[in-house]
Backbone:
């Protein structure tokens, strides 16, 4: 008996039999020749049942495949296997997860004598591994999910960027268009003026009259085109006022029917008792006509066009290009060819058209878009290829207070009311001389100068009855000139002539003004108005 | 795509008729190192690794492509095209015996004959057919694979495979045998052990040699007979060798059997 407290007095045999590891010896053919008690105990088998068995027999079928396909070849080729995970099969069929070490024992001649195999019970370790593997799998899934979300985000950012690029493009096109329209106006003014003067001369031959008529019509079309360009550029001078949309649309019924042709059915639906919208009625009529023509073209002359009037509530926090609130909605739906995504994305771009040359300028929708936005509303277009297009215009409501105010009657004029001494200033030689000729025609006494400074001298020296000034001039704007002139003559009647109708500075004034180009009649009527409102102030 | 690099293809030998050696599940081309040299004098010897094994290009692995034998078969046919080979003797071990069989059905004009070492068209028992394993057994295999490939065991799963940042491991492992990428091995195991290609066997009209060992615990002798019975033009040789890998455990007997098949 060893003294108590001393380590166990083990023989080598005890160690072999009872060591806390399993141990096996195999012959060169893989048959078990010896096995220790620990392993036999783990497997719950008697030693004699194990001896002479192939070592694969104590493996589970799955482990046997792994042994045959992975371990066997390496053991044969390299002579050792370190810490291989294999599952052993107990007598009752249950599984014992194990870690095994294999060593080949070679004889003196180098031929294998057999193998030494050590077995460690790896039950707990294997359970822990499983958890690790599950964790790794979860992490992988999370990473995949993240990657997917990321990719999603990237496509969304890309789409947004594309939208922004498109917006910026439209913005710069707007500036360009505005500039071109302004210059065209300056060129049109003398053309229209001269045509007007010419058409008033008597003794014209029929042929001359015809030619003049054609030229006048062409000039008028050019004027409309320029006006659409200006609307798109949001530089149109809008006469926004409360408008009963139902009345406006019903009033246009014949016009629309005529423009869409006999085979397209027009349905107008309006909610009863709609509030008034705040919009320029003339421009809105133009917009509706533009949309009708688009619908006709899309339907190839056949189908249904529905025009719906109602109100829409834009809620707080709703993603919309508009502040929250109630809006009038004008919806036009056609059953035409519709647009694919690429066309839809560019539809409101100025000069974008899919129509044959000569059949579309590509300004229709851009005009409608410009009008809606400049009016404080918005334009939405939805389209399904082969199904149709729905265009929605939202417009702000006119406040009830304004409702009662009748539209001011168009000023009438009888010529010539009175011969006036008019001081005309315009830096553009062509415009100046043609307007001067027109004023002369109207029976006025004209003095024309090319610069604001000369004009100021004249105001002091000649005491004109009326100052007609261009707006955009080098050195000093027409507005500044009028301000300076009124320093000297506070009650001087003035008329401002503008190419850009809707300059921000001008919005704040009630000065009488006239948009280029204009006819003689328009000039006469503007003069009559200006001369009668000498006290119009610079600020509202 | 460089097929030669992807599949780590090696061309050796002095003969003209190509003999292609294809390794099975769990191994790489080195499994043939004691057999292939015996054919270098009379043949053009082609050795290669399936994608995922040995020196193959692991970046070429795509789970969808290799989710069935079809991806592996496509690779073999691409190697054949790339090397412009005809009149081929295709020697495939286990899984590769099936790959060779399927390739020869797709492009019979390229093949002369097939040598199938320990083949099995299906490892799962089904009705009268004794594949040798149940679905549970295969799940057990997958768990053992996971456990060994987790990193405890460098013997079969060298970290180098998934570890391009540690090239120094490459040196340690040069000259090692039968290396496979853990994740790929797992998916390859599913392809090999869950596939059932019994229906394709009768469509293989090429001359075929079935090499069956004693006590093959993976492809039992019944399966060898099944192959022989269902291949229209086959010979069965029952070898003295034991185990699933006679080309490793008994290279001389294996080589002799192949040689006499080719002579006959
Ligand atoms: N209702 C619609 N259905 C299908 N496509 C349309 C519709 N409205 C517009 N589009 C498409 O949008 C393009 C631009 O329309 P927009 O009205 O701005 O110009 P346009 O009609 O081509 O020319 P314009 O109106 O100046 O004569 C059209 O060419 C057409 O392709
Ligand atoms: Mg249009």
Residues:
């Amino acid at each position: 008996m060893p003294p108590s407290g001393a380590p166990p007095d083990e023989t080598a045999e005890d160690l072999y039999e009872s060591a806390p590891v399993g141990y096996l010896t195999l012959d060169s053919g893989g048959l078990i020749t010896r096995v220790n008690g620990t392993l036999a105990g783990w497997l719950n088998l008697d030693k004699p049942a194990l001896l002479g068995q192939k070592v694969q027999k104590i493996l589970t079928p799955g482990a046997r495949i792994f042994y045959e396909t992975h371990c066997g070849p390496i053991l044969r080729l390299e002579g050792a296997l370190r810490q291989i995970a294999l599952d052993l099969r107990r007598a009752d069929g249950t599984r014992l997860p194990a870690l095994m070490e294999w060593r080949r024992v070679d004889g003196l001649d180098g031929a294998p004598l057999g193998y030494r195999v050590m077995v460690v019970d790896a039950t707990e370790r294997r359970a822990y591994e499983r958890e690790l593997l599950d964790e790794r799998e979860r992490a992988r899934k999370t990473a995949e999910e993240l990657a997917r979300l990321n990719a999603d985000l990237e496509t969304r950012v890309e789409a947004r960027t594309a939208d922004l690029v498109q917006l910026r493009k439209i913005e710069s096109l707007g500036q360009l268009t505005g500039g071109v329209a302004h210059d065209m106006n300056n060129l049109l003014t003398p053309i229209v003026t001269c045509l007007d003067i010419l058409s008033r001369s008597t003794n014209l031959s029929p042929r001359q009259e015809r030619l003049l008529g054609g030229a006048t019509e062409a000039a008028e079309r050019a004027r409309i085109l320029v006006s659409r360009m200006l609307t798109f550029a949001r530089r149109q001078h809008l006469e926004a006022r409360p408008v009963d949309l139902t009345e406006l649309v019903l009033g246009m019924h014949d016009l629309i029917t005529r423009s869409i042709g006999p085979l397209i059915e027009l349905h107008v639906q309006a909610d009863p008792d709609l509030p008034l919208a705040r919009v320029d009625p003339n421009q809105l009529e133009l917009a509706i006509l533009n949309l009708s023509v688009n619908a006709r073209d899309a339907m190839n002359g056949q189908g249904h066009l529905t025009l719906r009037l109602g109100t829409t509530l834009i809620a707080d926090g709703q993603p919309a290009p508009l502040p929250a609130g109630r809006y009038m909605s004008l919806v036009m739906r056609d059953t035409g060819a519709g647009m694919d995504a690429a066309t839809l994305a560019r539809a409101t771009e100025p000069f974008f058209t899919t129509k044959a040359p000569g059949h579309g300028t590509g300004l229709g929708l851009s005009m409608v878009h410009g009008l809606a936005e400049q009016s404080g509303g918005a334009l939405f277009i939805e389209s399904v290829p082969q199904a149709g297009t729905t265009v929605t215009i939202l417009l702000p409501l006119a406040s009830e207070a304004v409702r009662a105010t009748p539209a001011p009657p168009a000023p009438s004029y009888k010529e010539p009311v009175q011969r006036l001494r008019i001081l005309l200033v315009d830096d553009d030689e062509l415009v100046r001389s043609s307007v001067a000729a027109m004023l002369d025609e109207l029976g006025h006494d004209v003095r024309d100068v090319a610069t604001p400074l000369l004009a100021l001298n004249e105001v002091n020296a000649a005491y004109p009855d009326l100052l007609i000034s261009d707006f955009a001039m080098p050195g000093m704007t027409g507005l500044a000139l009028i301000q300076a002139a009124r320093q000297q003559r506070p009650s001087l009647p003035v008329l401002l002539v503008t190419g850009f109708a809707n300059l921000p500075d001008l919005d704040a004034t009630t000065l009488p003004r006239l948009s280029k180009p204009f006819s003689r009649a328009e000039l006469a009527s503007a003069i009559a108005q200006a001369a009668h409102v000498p006290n119009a102030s610079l600020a509202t | 795509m460089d097929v030669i690099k992807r599949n780590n293809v090696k061309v050796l030998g002095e003969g003209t008729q190509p003999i292609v050696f294809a390794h099975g599940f769990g191994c790489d081309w080195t499994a043939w190192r004691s057999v292939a040299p015996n054919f270098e004098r009379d043949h053009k010897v082609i050795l290669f690794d399936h994608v995922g094994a040995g020196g193959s290009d692991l970046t070429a692995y795509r789970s969808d492509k290799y989710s069935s034998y079809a991806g592996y078969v496509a690779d073999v046919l691409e190697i054949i095209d790339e090397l412009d080979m005809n009149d081929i003797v295709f020697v495939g071990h286990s899984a590769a015996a099936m790959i060779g069989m399927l390739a020869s059905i797709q492009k019979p004009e390229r093949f002369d004959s097939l040598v199938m070492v320990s083949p099995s068209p299906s490892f799962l028992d089904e009705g009268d057919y004794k594949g040798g394993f149940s679905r549970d057994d295969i799940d057990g295999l997958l768990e053992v694979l996971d456990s060994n490939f987790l990193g405890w065991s460098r013997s079969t799963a060298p970290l180098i495979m998934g570890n391009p940042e540690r090239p120094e491991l490459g040196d340690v492992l040069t000259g090692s045998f039968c290396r496979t990428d853990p994740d790929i091995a797992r998916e390859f195991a599913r392809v090999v052990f869950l596939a059932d290609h019994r229906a394709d066997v009768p469509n293989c009209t090429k001359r075929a040699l079935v090499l069956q060992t004693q006590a093959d615990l993976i492809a039992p002798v019944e399966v060898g007979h099944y192959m022989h019975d269902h291949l229209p033009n086959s010979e069965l040789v029952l070898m003295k060798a034991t185990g699933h890998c006679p080309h490793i455990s008994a290279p001389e007997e294996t080589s002799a059997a192949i040689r006499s098949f080719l002579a006959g």
Remarks:
- Chain B has one domain: 3-263.
- Chain B has a mean pLDDT of 87.
- Chain B touches chain A at residues 24-27, 30-31, 94, 132-134, 137-148, 150, 152-156, 176-178, 180, 193, 215, 217-218, 242-245, 248-249 (CB under 8 Å).
- Strands of chain B lie at 10-12, 17-22, 43-48, 88-93, 111-117, 207-214, 234-242.
